[in-house]
Amino acid sequence: xxxxxxxxxxxxxxxxREHEERWLSPLAVRSYETRGRAQSEEQECLLRTPxxxxxxxxxxxxxxxxxxxxxxxxxxxxxxxYRTRLTHTLETTGISRGVARALRLNEDLTEAIxxxxxxxxxxFGHAGEEALDEVVREPYGRRFRHNExxxxxxxxxxxxxxxxxxxAEVRDGILNHTGPDEPDTHEGKIVRLVDRVAYINHDIDxxxxxxxxxxxxxxxxxxxLLGPTGSRRIDALVHDLVETSAQAGDIRQSDEVxxxxxxxxxxxxxxVYLAEGAAGEHARARMTVHRIFDHLIERGEQVDxxxxxxxxxxxxxxxxxxxxxx
Length: 326
Fold this sequence. Notes:
Distance between the termini: 61 Å
Number of strands: 0
Oligomer: single chain
Mean pLDDT: 93
Order of helices and strands: HHHHHHHHHHHHHHH
Radius of gyration: 21 Å
Largest sheet: none
């Protein structure tokens, strides 16, 4: 059917442009009006938009596949039902895409940012990030931030050092999904906010499963407002986000719901992420990261190469690597 395929491909871009002009909000990024790529490419795909190509490039990376064995909260958990960095990424992306659709923003751009936002996260979750930041801060005057490293992964490390050559909008959304600066696009702002919506709620679920939390321990007022289950809370948070953003012309939560979500986040830091019960796992993560990094430097690796290698490790690989240094 080469003739039929050719006719579809020839009409694809025009059809997307026409659909987006009819459907998308004026605030949305148009798929064929991207600010472009750092390196020009000889040929664009005739059956995918630039943002769809970015999505596919991200999904086919080694860094994306490694997310399935990187910690979300618990270090190398024994159970099969705990979240990993990969499932967090998929949950964040799915919720973000739903919000983008409701607000008539660009779903493909939102999806690409969501899938790429944590590619640079090191092993052992936030404890691993803090440990890697520690080992480079004082001796080398450097800092490690996973959002910055996610951008390095897509710009430099993948494809044997050639990078993925992603569009400017996807790169911006990946870099600014956390940190002091907000993304330039509404699509990127959705992922930035939904990232928290996702991890707060699924981390509560995992903490209850692990016996670190009793559901009755959750703050009464915030649970009363947002809902008793993760699905109910996510539903409430998404509806509030969509309705408030539509009225504001920007990506916003209402003051009441935003305050409730932030209170839940504070609760999780106090009772789970930084709690006494997690101290042992955090110490194990820090010791592992420090030991591997110091070993790499001692054998002559440059600082950047050591950072890249440690940040790319999965939890299990890092634990095994450290054990073999004994």
